[in-house]
Design a protein that fits this description.
The structure is a single chain. An 8-stranded parallel barrel has the order 4-5-6-7-8-9-10-13, surrounded by 4 helices. Helix 1 (about 5-40) runs antiparallel to helix 2 and helix 9 packs parallel to helix 10. The protein has 2 domains: about 5-80; about 85-390, Glycosidases (TIM Barrel). By secondary structure, it is α/β, with parallel strands linked by helices. The protein is globular, with a radius of gyration of 25 Å. The protein is built from 10 helices and 13 strands. Helices cover about 40% and strands about 15% of the residues.
């Protein structure tokens, strides 16, 4: 990165911070005067507001001042909006290339089956410790306060939209665009992502995957018309074929869910031949349970097997940084809701195209976290921390 680029970004952040401070001071003083004038029925020198008529004048005055201040604050926020774009094979945030050191994040508490952000602050602390700069979610985050906290931590979010989510910000109903327009000016957003390995499920689209690709193309166009500051991606199962690519030339970034044992490096030269666009691994990783003893890893809970696999997977991805733009490792925490009783950590579960999961070829769905459900660090956490914190992408 050029020094001038660093200075320009720093100046932008300092300018925004200074404006926020000035506005805060302004409101504080205005409020103090308001209390003196209205609540305590006092007035500054040479001013009298003893009559109801004069009181109403002062109320209107401060309402006007409040409106002016809010407009100024809004202008300050908009002026600091970071622009995300693509150039060649890279993702850029403002004028800096961005490498995704990511994690898939779906915090479902023990005993529950729905996402809950009650552990967000602790989770963000752990993510920052591990060097994570990007969260990938499978459904939109609707709570502004959650996005605010993520952004304040300096982390970006890949917002995923499902095809049919009963009309809740989904592609089928078209309501996803309402979410885009609501949050397109929020600095937490890295880019929008449509679908998650739907190419494995033509049965969801009347047994014709073209129906999905048509919907994907249409949704991508609509986002481009409404938001010029963020790219559009899709998360595809493995390497896309010619049909997927030809029907979706408007996709800006291709996410690939890749489980090729502990050797994802084979996907990068294949992508290099297929496309000049940015790609990242939208899923990769390993679980911490061995269904069978294999490759010198014992049967049962085996954090070493997971840690060793993730070590090799991340090394391969980072070695290919000129072609790939990073990874969203699967996943942050264990999820007990997936394979049985949500109050217990069950063995088993099912996922498509999962025979490449190291090292037993079995997707033990409730054991994928780099931390457990209580947020205790697994051995894999330390691997991620070492890899992410030490990696610097070459210019």
């Amino acid at each position: 990165m050029k020094r001038s680029n660093i200075n320009s970004i720093t100046t932008l952040k300092e300018t925004f911070s200074q404006r926020v401070v000035y506005i805060a001071i302004f409101f504080s003083r205005a409020f103090q005067d308001f209390v003196k004038l209205i609540v305590h029925n006092q007035s500054p020198n040479k001013l009298s507001i003893q009559t109801p008529h004069n009181k109403m004048k002062w109320i209107h005055f401060f309402i006007s001042i409040y409106g002016f201040g809010m407009a100024l604050f809004s202008s300050s926020c908009n002026s600091s909006l970071e622009s995300v774009s693509t150039q060649g094979r890279q993702i850029w945030v403002n004028d800096t290339p961005y490498f995704i050191k990511g994690i898939c994040y779906n915090p479902v508490p023990k005993g529950e089956e729905k996402r809950d952000f009650g552990s967000l602050e602790k989770d963000l602390d752990l993510m920052l410790e591990a060097g994570i700069n990007t969260i990938r979610v499978y459904e939109p985050i609707t709570e502004t306060a959650v996005l605010d906290k993520i952004s304040q931590a300096g982390i970006k979010v890949i917002i995923g939209f499902g095809y049919n989510q009963d009309g809740k910000y989904d592609i089928l109903s078209g309501t996803f665009i309402d979410y885009v327009n609501r949050f397109k000016n929020h600095n937490a957003i890295l880019f929008w992502e449509l679908g998650n390995e739907y190419n494995y499920h033509p049965e969801w689209f009347d047994d014709d995957i073209k129906n999905w690709y048509k919907a994907l193309h249409k949704a991508t166009d609509l986002i481009h018309k409404n938001d010029t500051s963020h790219p559009v991606a899709t998360a595809h199962g493995e390497l896309p074929d010619s049909l997927a690519l030809s029907m979706n030339p408007n996709i800006d970034i291709w996410g690939l869910n890749v489980y090729r044992w502990d050797q994802p490096e084979t996907i990068f030269p294949q992508w290099e031949i297929l496309s000049q666009k940015p790609m990242y691994l939208s899923e990769a990783g390993a679980d911490s349970f061995m269904r069978v003893a294999k490759d010198n890893y014992a049967e049962g809970i085996n954090e070493k097997a997971q840690a060793d696999a993730i070590d090799k997977i991340l090394s391969a991805i980072m070695d290919q940084h000129k072609i790939g733009s990073g990874v969203a490792l699967f996943s942050f925490s264990d999820e007990w809701w997936k394979a049985g009783n949500p109050n217990l950590q069950d063995i088993g579960g099912w996922a498509p195209n999962s025979t490449g999961v190291p090292y037993d070829g079995s997707p033990n769905e409730e054991f994928w976290g780099i931390v457990d459900i209580e947020r205790n660090r697994k051995a894999a956490f330390e691997v991620v921390k070492k890899k992410y914190r030490s990696f610097i992408r070459e210019k």
